[in-house]
Amino acid sequence: MARYPFLRNCLVAASLWSTMAVAATPAQVAAFFRAVQLDDVKKVEQLVGREVNANEINPVGGEPALVIAVREDAMRVLNVLLAHPGTDLEAKAMNGNTALMMAAFKGNKPAAVALLAKGAQVNRSGWTALHYAAASGDGDIARMLIERKARLDALSPRESGAYTPLMMAAREGKAEAAMLLLGQGANPRLENTEGLTAARIAERAGHTDLAAAISAFKR
Prior knowledge:
Blueprint: H1 5-19, H2 26-37, H3 41-47, H4 65-71, H5 75-83, H6 99-106, H7 109-118, H8 129-136, H9 139-147, H10 165-172, H11 175-184, H12 198-204, H13 208-216
Helix pairs in contact: 2-3, 4-5, 4-6, 5-7, 6-7, 6-8, 8-9, 8-10, 9-11, 10-11, 10-12, 12-13
């Protein structure tokens, strides 16, 4: 590559163009996010990376386009965004959610598959996609995450109670997800900031059968 400085410079310029911030007008931003929500591929292709940065945060709702596409099941636009070289797979909404976390929360398996294939991050500090899969009771997505070394006993932030994915499944009464996590090695003896185990959390939430099943589980 050193023998071809012009080619090298062109590649560098292309890389910078794909990730650089785009100074978009409010009207362009509004049009872009409306197109994302409506799964309008042509409009998104026209705007993304040219007039609107792929990782722009929507002023209404505080989410990047990738998260919105997953939430709205706008799969055609999701694929366009994933193919765009400037899209950050880990772009966060103002509440900290990533696209993979949203896919887990919504039970959007095709989106989760596509994001994981592109290299979306499974483990992160605080809330994780596995927390969300457990809370929604989506066993398929939970299995995919576990196969990719998701931390079974990841803790949510202390200010939110230091919940594990198992605790989230217990709180929401998602027995299948809870049993899956236990079967994979999740620790049922861990306590949250209130000193409650997953079984106690299930019991408090009125899921007495699940509480009993967690208590009776033998590794």
